[in-house]
Amino acid sequence: MGNPKGFIKVKRDKTAYRPVCERVKDYDRVFELRSDENCREQASRCMDCGTPFCHWGCPIGNYIPEWNDLVFGGYWARALELLEATNNLPEITGRVCPALCESACVLGINDEPVTIREDELAIIEHGFKHNLLKPQPPARRTGKQIAVVGSGPAGLSCAAQLNRAGHSVTVFEKDEKIGGIMRFGIPDFKLEKSILDRRIKLWQAEGITFQPGAYIQDKSALQKYDAVVLAGGSRQPRDLPIPGRQFGGIYFAMDYLTQSNRFVDGNKLSIDAKGKRVVVIGGGDTGSDCVGTANRQGAVCVVQIELLAKPGEKRPTNQPWPFYPNVLKTTSSHEEGSDRKWSIATKEFLGRGAQVTGLKCVQVDEKLKEIPGTEFILEADLVFLALGFLHPVHDKLLIDLKIEFDQRGNVKTDANFQTSAKGVFAAGDMRRGQSLIVWAISEGRKTARAVDTWLMGNSELPAI
Ligand SMILES: Cc1cc2nc3c(=O)[nH]c(=O)nc-3n(C[C@H](O)[C@H](O)[C@H](O)COP(=O)(O)OP(=O)(O)OC[C@H]3O[C@@H](n4cnc5c(N)ncnc54)[C@H](O)[C@@H]3O)c2cc1C
Ligand code: SF4
């Protein structure tokens, strides 16, 4: 602990954002990166706790107090080494992780927590800026061939770990570019895609083979591999089968975001909110991404509705520290303009001809029971359903491999991440259900160790 009084003297600095009126005109990054100096000062707030609950809160076991101390001392290269020991994609989690660690930070009990996520980001960006990240191909190859199907954070971190262990890894991806939801779900203004390309280039130099545009549909395509990892995500969207669902202008959020991300990458836009009244159903992060995208496209107005009650601004008593609490979250997209409504159920989509024109809604109580006399109509030209995902798409490949599913429809594995098909493993949202990037990384890393052990009898890859 470099500065024993840091947590008393230094206050948490808020993340700096570009002005709203400027940033809604483009898809560039909305926030400013912290300077090295500011980051050092913020890292000095870390108390180097004897029992670092931040570490407990982080699914990949990041060495948080250690790298905070190193950053404060100006030992950036050593901090980077420690960061890379537990996280294959810190430049992604540093940008979009909800930072479960910060909710568990001891300083957060009676002050604001340490800026752990931004400290992580500062370390990795310092590393790239100063050319500290070099390809590190394995010293020797094992001769084993592994196929990873799916290139989201689970598949990528699994591939990186397996390659590190000396196996020859090919990542298959059905989309035209690598990255999964990081590429086609999360908008550029939250996660610029050059960040992904930069990391993929490093991994290519380390020897991983990437095959985008390769939709694996039957097991014969995987026959030559010694082991297979399925990391296809959880992409079966939850629908809203109410009267009027057939009207045009009602889309799943992921379809809307995907075509918008492709547009930013130079393709044609097919769902354009320009001049339209937009309603987003679903109050979570995916809904918020739709809000930010619709505002950039020039929507006339954007309303976001949520079935559940408005969360409070403080931790609920049944979610005490160090747990991740359900509190009101106002994202940069919300700040750019949206009318948010809670405790609203949608009863019917209204339309003229084939096109949606509005939603018939009603207010509900805490038990989600309709409150009589509170019906109202929301006008809309475009509706986005951001209601989450049920489970992975049970596509041809899973059927052909005779993969068993759990009760929720996710791919079932044993404690070693192996599915019902011998030599076929599964990781990420496909296995655990819709979750977070940091959990996908955790799953990818653990699965890599399990595959390595299965192939070689033991593994030197880290257990978390
Ligand atoms: C819009 C949106 C925003 C989000 N924002 C955040 C956020 O800000 N922070 C956060 O932590 N989490 C966020 N999440 C959640 C997070 O993105 C996911 O939990 C994470 O991406 C899951 O990773 P994964 O590798 O399991 O799957 P995915 O990222 O879904 O990747 C799976 C990949 O497998 C490919 N695939 C599937 N089947 C095949 C096949 N047969 N052959 C070849 N390829 C195949 C798919 O095309 C896809 O590219 C968000 C989710 C969404 C939908
Ligand atoms: S819990 Fe907070 S203050 Fe304690 S070591 Fe972790 S980051 Fe530092």
UniProtKB/TrEMBL annotation:
InterPro entries: DPD_II, FAD/NAD-bd_sf, FAD/NAD-binding_dom, Glut_synth_ssu1, Glutamate_Synthase, Helical_ferredxn. Residues 145-444 form the FAD/NAD(P)-binding domain. The gene is gltD. One of its GO terms (biological process) is glutamate biosynthetic process. Keywords: Amino-acid biosynthesis, Glutamate biosynthesis, Oxidoreductase. The keyword Secreted does not apply. Pathway: Amino-acid biosynthesis. Residues 24-125 form the Dihydroprymidine dehydrogenase domain. This is Glutamate synthase. It comes from the Bacteria. It comes from candidate division WOR-1 bacterium RIFOXYB2_FULL_48_7. GO terms for molecular function: iron-sulfur cluster binding; oxidoreductase activity, acting on the CH-NH2 group of donors, NAD or NADP as acceptor.
